[in-house]
Amino acid sequence: MANASKYDTHVKPYLxxxxxxxxxxxxxxIARALNIDPNTLTKYKKKHKELANCFTLxxxxxxxxxxxxxxxxxxxxxxxxxxxxxxTVDGVEVKTVEEYExxxxxxxxxxxxxxxxxxxxxRNEDKQTMDLKKEKLDLERDKADNW
Length: 147
What we know:
By secondary structure, the protein is of the alpha+beta class. The chain contains seven helices and two strands. Helix 2 (15-21) runs parallel beside helix 5 (49-75) and helix 4 (38-47) crosses helix 5. The longest helix is centred in the middle third of the chain and has 27 residues, at 49-75.
């Protein structure tokens, strides 16, 4: 009977864990957590479709979550902040939790990035930069026409 490969012992049993690890770790870090070389992980991704799919789906999920977070940040949002206060009353520690409703203002950087990537008509560069680019393009056209 043939020996099990490292894929069968170090990777395949942990496919669900790998999907979770992708949330916070690089592929190299994931490989090290699985006790395999990063190059080996790359080879396994090419050889084993289920592993490649695990990374593809994890990446798509993460991108979706990041887009949602960016949109939320661009629009502003309400959130609850909790603060635990410990006081001593008659020699006894008493903990109370205070909750505050807060509002995170829309973030102009997030707004700009989303408009730049979602709206083809968004002018994401200042007029001077656009004029310089147009001038450069005109010079390149003249050069090509006179060549």
